[in-house]
Amino acid sequence: MAGAVAPMKPVEARTRFLPVGDTAFAVEFGDRIDPGINALVHRAAALLAGAPPDGLVETVPTFRSLLVHYDPLRTSAEALQAFIGTLELEEAAAEAPARTWRIPVLYGGEAGPDLAEVARATGLSESDVIALHAGTLYRVYVQGFLPGFAYLGDLPAALDLPRLTTPRVRVPPGSVAIAQRMTGVYPVESPGGWHLLGNTPLRFFDPAKVPPTLFAPGDGVRFVPVSADEHSAIRADVEQGRFVPNVEGAPA
Predict the structure, then answer these.
(1) Of 164, 165, 176, 168, nearest to 192 (Cα)?
(2) Which residues contact 110 (CB under 8 A, 6 or more apart)?
(3) What is the Cα–Cα distance from 177 to 16, expressed in whole angstroms?
(4) Spatial CA neighbour of 71 closest among 85, 86, 52, 87
(5) What does the pLDDT read at residue 208?
(6) Tens of pLDDT, residues 202-230
(7) Per-residue pLDDT tens for 32-47?
(8) How much is the pTM?
(9) Cα separation of 16 and 173, whole Å?
(10) CA 180-135-158 angle, 5° bins
(11) Does residue 168 or residue 35 have the better pLDDT?
């Protein structure tokens, strides 16, 4: 097969291969949501994208597994699994995100109608909730639910709350929300059951752009508190196409 990566060591013993129909299989790297396991998923996806073996069609990373699509006329599941079993993934868990986005957020008030209730439920002050949420470096685990919606973890344990008992029918675009050990940003108006802490004026999905989503799996994300005036100014810049997102590391 073309595109072999060398030298290589075997992937960790806990890796499992599970069939998914006639042209795909899943590579499971663990049984829980964990940044180290997720790093292995993205490391494997990156290696396969950088030097794809013959017959590989596409890979789709998830929280703890990698879905591998292949062309059965050019390769087999057994051949691809053998190839994946040689990939060097041991250093992935220690790798920092290649790039980290800094996302401006107006917390509380109309922008974050659940901030006060989150503070009450967690026994924290509103300022402590903001400090905890904004003081954490999050990893983009996966994207789903809506185009451009990224599941970001891990939320500090002190902010771990279940989803709302009754979801909202409409959540405004740009709403920054939390549920359990995840946080995320609603890219468009939609129903939603997460707790709304604030709002960002940035756009997270644009089908006219390549890629159409702002984040990519494996990216880092930090939320930066801003004032109402700053939020309005950034929104105006975004609407006029003048705003350049703050990203550290590799260019988007």
Answers:
(1) 168
(2) none
(3) 33
(4) 52
(5) 87
(6) 999 988 888 899 998 889 999 999 999 99
(7) 988 889 989 988 999 9
(8) 0.82
(9) 38
(10) 35
(11) 168
Backbone angles phi, psi at 50, to 5 degrees: -75, -30
Q: Could you tell me the two tokens for 76?
A: 């087999």
Classify 77 as helix, strand or coil: helix
CB-count exposure of residue 241 (10 Å: 0-12, 13-18, 19+) = exposed
Contacts 24+ apart (CB under 8 A), 131-134: 132/156, 132/158, 132/159, 133/107, 133/159, 133/178, 133/183, 133/197, 133/223, 134/105, 134/107, 134/222, 134/223, 134/224, 134/225
Lookup result for tokens 């800094």 = 102
The gap from C-alpha 162 to its chain's centroid, in whole angstroms, comes to: 19
* Neighbouring C-beta atoms of residue 170, cutoff 10 Å: 9
Tell me the torsion sign for CA atoms 85, 92, 143, 54: negative
For 4, residues 6+ apart whose C-beta sits below 8 A from its C-beta are: 51, 53, 83, 86
Q: Which two tokens stand for residue 74?
A: 């050019």
What span, in angstroms and rounded, lies between the C-alpha atoms of 215 and 219?
7
Q: What pLDDT does residue 11 have? A: 47
Q: Give backbone dihedrals phi and psi of 20, rounded to 5 degrees, phi first.
A: -135, 85
> Could you tell me the domains of the chain?
16-94 (3.30.1360.40), 99-249 (2.40.100.10)
